[in-house]
Design goal:
The chain is mainly α. Helix content is 65%, strand content 2%. The longest helix is centred in the first third of the chain and has 29 residues, at 139-167.
């Protein structure tokens, strides 16, 4: 008797399974709090060069800035340049230094910000960008920090996948909790950018343990009938984490305290262990430019759209199956990126609506992928398989922040990259077998036996069709049973 038949006999969804799902909710909440944290942690507020001297009369601040800062083509003051010498404006005496004779005949000379920057503190009191001046020629370091974090997730997925097979899920889950807590608090206490980058990379590697361990722990103790609802229900806790991040980001405007706030829930996870045993998504979630909403409204809107998308996924995976649901969600994501390329930047409401719809499709694909992937691997290889799959997925997550830098080549290139990859994934989804209403394979032999059965069914259908006996042909399963 297989393990799932045994579950059917004793009851596949009882108090043990309910308690197991409840205890696995916390890691699912912690993941988005950390994975989407760069939205607030690495935010770059409005800034301009720090200027010498102080302005006593704030009513003349605009004119004072006009004498010191050049303007960009869109009319805004430059964020990265200042005049080498203050300019004299008509009827003003704000400039403290007279312009050089060579500047009177042509364009005034400019220079980089040699004395640092001044930041708008109205929205964020402190971010890593303001802490270490990760702007202008150093702005790439801001994106690199997010990339390094997801590279850490990538490496951790492989390590935790192997170790959880060897030493057990429960022990490695405890290791993930303790390591994430220690590294998260150390990261919040970073004294320079290098220390922050290293500790965030290591934190990403420990957070990978949650993605690798939680899903097998949930699904391996469930029968076929309750696996779908538990998988979708469990993913709603991710949405809860997204919504909590919007609230935490709004209430806590300092990056160090915010990082501590999203790390401390690991303490609860450590205590709850004496009781019980993942390119397009992040491209959409981390790129909030051009939506004409503030970061808190956008994060809240992106989190709210996930709830209906999960409900739709639950209905579709039960009726249309995993493969069609995944392909449809990926295609919807690709189409929203494509349509956004055609929409004028002036129609901000349409652009925002398309971004929210795309986030819904993206979340649907994300949710389906976790359920679908876990059903494709046999039990003996499931953590290792999910770990290797997560490695490739986190590679996409680590490249997503860097892909946003492609707007320096062409403004629409990041959206084209995100949408094109989603479209390619739509096509490859049809290469996967359908797992709806199928028992989880327990051994490699079970997977090979299922593949052999499918091949025999396809061959028999082809033979019967060629011989012209389609009207009287028996069901393919009958032929397979006869041949075996």
């Amino acid at each position: 008797m297989g393990f799932e038949e045994l579950l059917d006999e004793v009851g596949g969804f009882g108090s043990f399974q309910l308690r197991n799902l409840a205890l696995m909710a916390l890691p699912r909440v912690i993941l988005p709090l950390n994975f989407l944290l760069p939205i607030f942690l690495a935010a770059v507020p409005a800034h301009h060069c720090a200027l010498p001297g102080t302005l006593d009369n704030f009513s003349h601040q605009e004119a004072w800035l006009e004498t010191h800062l050049p303007r960009e083509p869109d009319g805004r003051f430059s964020s990265c340049l200042r005049f080498a010498h203050p300019q004299t404006l008509p009827n003003t005496t704000l400039g403290r230094e007279a312009p050089s004779p060579g500047e009177l005949e042509g364009e005034p000379s400019t220079m980089p910000c040699s004395q640092g920057w001044e930041y708008d503190r109205s929205e964020f009191s402190s971010t890593i960008a303001t802490e270490w001046d990760l702007v202008c020629e150093r702005k790439g370091l801001n994106r690199v920090a997010s990339t390094l974090f997801f590279i850490g997730v990538l490496m951790g997925a492989v390590v935790f996948g192997y170790l959880s097979d060897r030493f057990g899920r429960r022990r490695l889950l405890l290791v993930a909790y303790v390591s994430t807590l220690v590294l998260g608090l150390t990261s919040a206490a970073s004294v320079n950018y290098v220390m922050f980058a290293i500790t965030r990379t290591l934190t990403g590697s420990t957070l990978a343990g949650f993605t690798i361990i939680v899903l097998p722990l949930e699904l391996e103790w469930l029968d076929v009938e309750h696996r779908e609802v538990a998988g979708i229900l469990g993913s709603t806790f991710w949405t809860g984490g997204v919504l909590l991040l919007a609230l935490a980001g709004y209430l806590i405007r300092d990056w160090r305290w915010l990082l501590m706030a999203v790390t401390l829930p690991c303490v609860i996870g450590i205590l709850s262990i004496r009781f019980s045993v993942n390119f397009s998504y992040y491209g959409l979630s981390l790129d909030l430019s051009g939506l004409r909403l503030n970061v808190y409204q956008t994060q809240l809107l992106f989190g709210a759209v996930e709830l209906p998308s999960k409900l739709v996924v639950y209905l579709l995976v039960r009726r249309a199956g995993r493969r069609l649901t995944q392909a449809g969600a990926l295609l919807g994501t690709a189409l929203t990126f494509g349509i956004r390329l055609l929409v004028s930047s002036e129609t901000s409401s349409w652009s925002t609506a398309l971004a929210v719809i795309g986030k819904g499709f993206s979340e649907a694909a994300f949710t389906t992928a976790y359920l679908f992937t876990s059903e494709l691997y046999p039990t003996v290889l499931r953590p290792t398989g999910i770990g290797l799959t997560s490695l490739v997925g986190r590679l996409g997550g680590s490249l997503a922040p860097l892909a946003a830098l492609l707007d320096g080549v062409w403004l629409s290139l990041p959206k084209l990259a995100y949408g094109g990859i989603a479209l390619l994934a739509t096509c490859t989804t049809f290469l996967l077998p359908e797992t709806r209403q199928a028992q989880l394979p327990e051994t490699i032999q079970d997977v090979e036996r299922k593949r052999l059965t499918l091949n025999l069914q396809s061959s028999c259908l082809s033979l019967w069709s060629r011989w012209g006996y389609r009207r009287v042909s028996p069901h393919p399963t009958t032929v397979v049973m006869f041949l075996s």
